[in-house]
């Protein structure tokens, strides 16, 4: 089914199938080893496995290969048990929403509680979580969410304000998941890193 969906995206959205190099399982279900065998045969990475953090000061996990299997607590069953040499996992590291007296963990940016109402709230939430990555080990910071969540005008404003804030920084890049994997395979110093640019055909 997933392989055929990739072909449908190529046909109807004009995205070359070769450019669709990974996926996230629906509802964060991986299908266990059966799902990972399919991924291993057809894709470069998975972006489904949740990686628990105890709090914002707990360092997030970098993307890694499943050469030695998945060795973290399984947050959404079934998780893979076998090894998948060369297949990358891009972790869904916990993010944190600030409750009244504690931090509430979530696996995706649109899932944290309490729900945010203003653009300022959403901007501060994204900035807080980005800084928790940046100030610990600088693992890649993803903003994984569903597009429909940004149909709310306040959230969209907060999101674009966050992107503008990131673009002011000279020591980071906004990249795709595939670019992260390519960099992890062949890291380069900042001075020689060439960021890809979007092209229109």
UniProtKB/TrEMBL annotation:
InterPro entries: CE4, Glyco_hydro/deAcase_b/a-brl
Cited Gene3D superfamilies: Glycoside hydrolase/deacetylase
Entry's Gene Ontology BP terms: carbohydrate metabolic process
Domain of life where this protein originates: Eukaryota
Name the record gives this protein: Putative peritrophic membrane chitin binding protein
Organism taxonomic ancestry: Eukaryota, Metazoa, Ecdysozoa, Arthropoda, Chelicerata
């Amino acid at each position: 089914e997933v392989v055929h969906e990739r072909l449908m995206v190529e046909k109807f959205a004009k995205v070359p199938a070769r450019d669709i190099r990974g996926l996230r399982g629906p509802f964060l279900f991986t299908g266990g080893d059966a799902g990972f065998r399919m991924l291993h045969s057809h894709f470069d990475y998975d972006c489904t496995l949740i990686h628990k953090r105890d709090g914002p000061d707990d360092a997030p996990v970098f993307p890694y290969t499943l050469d030695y299997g998945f060795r973290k607590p399984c947050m959404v069953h079934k998780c893979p048990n076998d090894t998948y040499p060369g297949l990358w996992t891009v972790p869904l590291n916990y993010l944190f929403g600030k409750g009244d007296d504690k931090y509430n963990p979530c696996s995706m940016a649109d899932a944290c509680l309490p729900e945010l109402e203003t653009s300022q709230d959403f901007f501060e939430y994204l900035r807080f979580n980005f800084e928790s990555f940046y100030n610990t080990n600088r693992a890649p910071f993803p903003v994984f969410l569903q597009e429909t969540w940004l149909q709310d005008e306040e959230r969209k404003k907060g999101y674009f304000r966050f992107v503008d804030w990131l673009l002011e920084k000279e020591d980071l890049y906004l990249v795709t998941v595939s670019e992260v994997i390519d960099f992890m395979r062949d890291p380069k110093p900042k001075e020689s890193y060439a960021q890809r640019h979007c092209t229109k055909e």
